[in-house]
Amino acid sequence: MTLIELFETARARLQAAPLAYGQGSTNAHDEAAWLLLWRLGLPPDSDLTALAAQPVEPEPAQAVLALIDERIATRRPAAYLTRQAWLQGVPFYVDERSIVPRSLIAELIAGAEGADCLDDWLGAHTQRVLDLCTGNASLAVLAALAWPEVQVDAADLAPAALAVARINVEQHGLQQRVRLIESDGLAALLERYDLILCNPPYVCRASMQALPPEFRAEPALALDGGLQGGADGMDFIRTLLAQAATHLQPEGVLVLEIGHERPHFERAFPSLPTHWLHTSAGPDAVLLLTRAALEIWQATLTDPTCRTQA
Q1: Per-residue model confidence as pLDDT tens digits over 161-200
Q2: Beta strand residue intervals within the chain, DSSP E
Q3: Which of 171, 111, 113, 89 is nearest to 137 (CA)?
Q4: Alpha-carbon distance 189 to 130, whole Å?
Q5: How far is the C-alpha of 15 from the C-alpha of 1, rounded, in Å?
Q6: pTM metric for this prediction
C-alpha cells in the first residue's frame, strides 16, 4: 500500500463516521492526515503529495488504521489520542486534564492573517500579562514567545490542568518567565496587569446539552459557563467583569473570548463599552475591554446620573 492509498482509506473511514471536528482540525481530510503522519512518525507539515508513492509496510499501515478506528469507536478528540496539538504552529502537549487548545485569542497574539493584532493595544508599559483560565498554558506560552520582554502569570482553578500547563511551560523553556498559579478566577491574584487574556467557560446550558461526544470528553469545568446555576453561560464572566478593573493597570486591557455566545453576552451586559476584535471566526467571538471602559460601566450600574448620561 502506498502512503496516498493509506491516506485515502483513512479519510474515507473518518468521513463515513458520525464524527465532530473543531479540536485541532475541522474536517475528515485534515484529521486523517494528522493521525496518519503522527502514527508513521513523520513531521506534521509533511507534503502528502510529495510522499504519495512512498510504500507503507503492512504493520505500520495497520497501526494507522487501528488509530483511525479508535478515533471512530471512542469519539475521543484526536489530540487526546496523540497527546499533541498545535496552536498557531506551536506544539503543545495535551491530555484529558485540559481542553484541546484552540482559542481564537492565539490569532490576535500572533497577528494571524485576517485577525486583529494585540500589538496595537500594547506598548512600552506592557510588562505583566495574565492568562486566566489557562488550561494547558497555550496562550501563556504564545504570549511569552510573542513578547519576550513580558512576564506572564498563568492561572487556573484546576490543579490537574496546571499539571499539563507545567509540561508545556517546561517544554518551551519558559520557567523563568511564566508563573503558574492556582486561582478561582482572580481570587488568588494580587498583581495588577497590563494585559489579561481569558478564554473562560462560557458555553450556555442549551449548548452544553447539545455537545457531541468529542467535546463532552473535555473537562466540563473549562466549558460550562453555567456551573453556578445560570442558563446563559455568563456566570464566570459576570464575576470577572465585576473585579477586572482592580486587577488592571491604568492603561491595561482585558481580552475575552466568548465564542458563539455574543447574544447572551450582550443581553447580560447591555451598557458595557465593548471593542470587538476580528478573528477567523469573524467579529463576534473575541472582545476587548479597557480598564477605563470597565470603570465607566461599573459607574453606570451604581450611579443613576451616570446611567442617564450614558
Answers
A1: 999 999 999 999 999 999 999 999 999 999 999 999 999 9
A2: 84-87, 90-93, 128-132, 151-156, 178-182, 193-198, 248-257, 275-279, 282-290
A3: 171
A4: 10
A5: 20
A6: 0.93
